[in-house]
Amino acid sequence: MRKNRQGTACVILAGGLGTRMKSGLPKVLHPIAGRPMITYAIDAALSLNPEKCVVVVGAMGETIKEALSGYAGKLIFAVQKKPLGTAHALSAGLAGLKSFRGGIMVLNGDGPLLKSSTLKKFLSLHRRAGNALSLASFIAKEPGSYGRIVRDGSGLPLRIVEKSDLTDEESNIDEVNSGLYLMEPETVGLLEKVKPNPGKKEYYLTDILALAGKSGLKTGVYPIAPEEEFAGVNTYSELRLAEDIIRGRLIAALAGSGVKFLHPGLTFIDATVEIAPGSLIYPNTYIQGCTKIGKGCIIYPNVRIIDCVLEEGAIIKDSSLMEGSRICKSAQVGPFAHIRPGSVIRERAKIGNFVEVKKSVIGEGTKAQHLSYIGDSTVGKDVNIGAGTITCNYDGVKKHQTVIGDGVFIGSDTQLIAPVKVGKGSYVGAGSTIRRNVPAGSLGISRAEQKNIKGWARKREKRKGSSK
Questions:
Q1: DSSP string spanning 320-373?
Q2: pLDDT in tens, 386-420
Q3: What are the residue ranges of helices labelled H in 21-77?
């Protein structure tokens, strides 16, 4: 058994153009469950605590670097100037490992389904065997275009054969190359011997297995995980399938922790979402971004929540949209409500149907149950906001604030022309247009005098009859 001399580094190949996606976005940045595809491979690699982690980028490298800025200090970027194959890409990646002399694990940036546990198992097998080169394989239901693993009669791996070079006998092989490699320095040195493919004139990393064998190096090929984990993403169809799998894993993990899903297959949750035990999620809900949901919350159908915090016991009723806001303990929102960014709905407050709240604080126990717009406002506790209330916050040039004190009663069909303040304990009569501040404990009312014209309807009918 050879002795692995040093630790492990990871090289993630991410220079592919992804032409089949027909998109201006680099393939590895296409989102899966709210995160760029490549971040799943990066996180799996970083779970090994590698000494270094190199990402090999191509023509759109600057875009990829910017998207991965959250990994500052954890990644090294190397550039493959021309797309000349996987062996050429790894050679470019070695520029980030000049002082490193340990084993190098090679992963694909478009393989988001590979689990950390599989990488750890693979690394363990490699070290226990003392291999100079290890390769992960899998048994394919339909080998298709995958390179086949050719072994000798004793099971020793000999080479990887691409589809175009298969013999009739080799076409029946169902063990295929996963693209996951682990190689020691003596194997890395063989990259210089890889020759360009006669057809595409590219340098394929698959050739390294045969070269290692011919050089007398110890190799191992291990079918360590199901086909699903090694699936690459090259088309939007494959992207959708990968997303289904990842979301299924996320929901399974949350369900295992005590979150109840009434129909997991119709629930869409990003990988960045956190949900505490005891919450209930109805179907056809979209929970996205950096949303955090506390214990005992209920999310009813057709709800979309983006970058929000829901505290314990919050209830979001049917067909509501919430963005960048906080819903505090035991507060209720919906149905058919829109909570726009920068809003805070305090404890036990109720925002009802067809109510829109924008960049406002709604106080504890306050109710706005129907057909209202509250924008750029601070609303105190235990306020009643009647149906059809509008805070008129925009004068055509600037936004202005409305401040409503504790215990205020706002009558239905009221317009509050900002900037304006309604003092604590005040009342505003229904149908009022409030242009000036209402002092505490006062009644604010603004109505034209009502006139009743007797007999008007009968006279109108006579006029209609005479005109026929």
A1: -EEES-EE-TT-EE-SS-EE-TT-EE-TT-EEEET-EEES-EE-TT-EEEES-E
A2: 999 999 999 999 999 999 999 999 999 999 999 99
A3: 37-46, 61-67
CATH number for the segment(s) 236-444? 2.160.10.10
Report pLDDT digits (tens) over 196-222. Answer: 988 788 999 999 999 999 999 999 999
| Tokens at 184, concatenated | 């020691």
| 370 part of the active site | yes
- φ, ψ dihedrals at 345, nearest 5°: -105, 110
Q: Helices (H), strands (E): how many in the chain?
A: 8, 41
Fold classification of 8-230 is Spore Coat Polysaccharide Biosynthesis Protein SpsA; Chain A (3.90.550)
Distance CA 381, CA 404 (A): 9
Which one, of 380, 364, 362, lies nearest residue 372 by Cα?
362
Provide the whole-model pTM: 0.89
The tokens of 452 are what?
């009743």
> What residue spans define the domains of the chain?
8-230, 236-444
Quick one: which of 261, 134, 262 has its CA closest to 209? 134
| Catalytic residue of the set 126, 338, 370, 400 | 370
For 438, the 3-state DSSP assignment is strand
Q: At residue 42, what are phi and psi to the nearest 5 degrees?
A: -65, -45
